[in-house]
Amino acid sequence: LELGLSQEVIEQRVKDTFNEIFYGENRFFFFSPEDESLGYMEDTGNHDARTEGMSYGMMMCVQTDHKKEFDALWKWARTYMYMEDGENAGYFAWSVATNGEKNAYGPAPDGEEFFAMALFFASHRWGDGEGIFNYSKEARELLHTCVHKGEDGIGRAMWDPENHLIRFITEC
Known about the structure:
two-stranded antiparallel ribbon
């Protein structure tokens, strides 16, 4: 609008961009071939899925009201990226092959932060559902882990409790 474009032109550009990213010839969103309730954003330079790309994709979906794609991304992240065991339990593996095999067992703070933000936005837009689709509950649990991880002696918080700055490495 500030550049003099009409609201109609702006809205069409957003729709066209979403469609190109998610369904166009050069897309980088893919539904799982085995289960269309799962989807991932491919890092085309590395041919994997990364938490920042997945969470940015979720932000695009919630902001443009694409719940099916949002839920597919979130379900894929919770199915293949979420770590249930070990010192990083409660975080997401930052790199996962497109077949769901983890390439790494460490998290990346930008992915976790954007997952939580996208989940809060989804809760506001669509309301909370059941299980992993109880968006606000999932966001609160993730942020709790990011802040309190390691208080029991296992793992490490993403925010340093002394200076409140983000850590990019969660290993002790």
